[in-house]
Amino acid sequence: MIARLSGRLVEKQATRLVVDVHGVGYEVQVPLSTYYHLPEPGADVALRIHTHVREDALSLFGFATTLEQLVFERLIAISGIGPKLALSVLSGIGPAELVRAVQAGDVGRLTLIPGVGKKTAERIGLELKDRLPQQLTEELSADSGGPAGETTLRADLLSALLNLGYHRPLAEKAVDAALKTPGDQTFERVLKAALGRIGR
């Protein structure tokens, strides 16, 4: 099994990369949470890898952090959730906020992820809560406020708008403006405000 890839980034798309390792190009699928941390093509890159083997295919899934890989592997262990849906989940919400939403039982937040309906969100909330290490959830719960929390919220909002098809510069402008408006800094409220600004 391939557990790590380190080489030159040859191609970079929102959910797909090609990494050249000593002349061999490896196709790697990644969530948007990893994509945002990647350098431009031509630069060196190192990724944690989950190797997914089926009868008809061998697929590589890459992650920038241990937390992303951990959440991905816990997600695909849930009945009915395959690698593609797990990538969509991590593309629609940052791994740290996903863990917090699961711990808080915030099904509404999970249903905002593109491709995740209410039943799937409830299943994720119920089953993922029992699969996450207790130490991890306690650490993330203790570190949920302040500037880091705001940065996570901004990243999640940008991810949601990009998934909806908006261009990054427009999405960034709308999110930054929405974050400055008075009111509760919840994902739902700020997303609505950002969408309202784009629609003007």
Summarize the structure.
This protein is α+β, with helices and mostly antiparallel strands. It has helices spanning 32-35, 66-76, 83-92, 95-104, 107-111, 118-131, 134-142, 146-163, 168-180, 187-198, and strands spanning 4-12, 16-21, 24-29, 44-53, 58-63.
Report on this model:
There is one protein chain. With 200 residues, the protein is α+β, with helices and mostly antiparallel strands. The protein has 3 domains: 60 residues, OB fold (Dihydrolipoamide Acetyltransferase, E2P) (Beta Barrel); 77 residues, DNA polymerase, domain 1, CATH 1.10.150.20; 53 residues, Helicase, Ruva Protein, domain 3, CATH 1.10.8. It starts with a strand and ends with a helix. The protein contains 10 helices and 5 strands, in the order βββαββααααααααα. About 4% of the residues have low confidence. It has a 5-stranded antiparallel sheet.
What characteristic shape results from the CA principal axes?
globular
Low-confidence stretches: 142-149
Query: Helix-strand pattern, N to C?
Result: EEEHEEHHHHHHHHH
Strand order of the largest sheet: 3-2-1-4-5
Strand fraction equals: 15-25%
Q: Mind telling me the CATH class of the largest domain?
A: Mainly Alpha
What do we call the CATH topology of the largest domain?
DNA polymerase, domain 1
What is the share of helical residues? 40-55%
Radius of gyration: 17 Å
Secondary structure elements and their pairing?
Layout: E1 4-12, E2 16-21, E3 24-29, H1 32-35, E4 44-53, E5 58-63, H2 66-76, H3 83-92, H4 95-104, H5 107-111, H6 118-131, H7 134-142, H8 146-163, H9 168-180, H10 187-198
Antiparallel strand pairs: 1-2, 1-4, 2-3, 4-5
Helix pairs in contact: 2-3, 4-6, 8-9, 8-10, 9-10
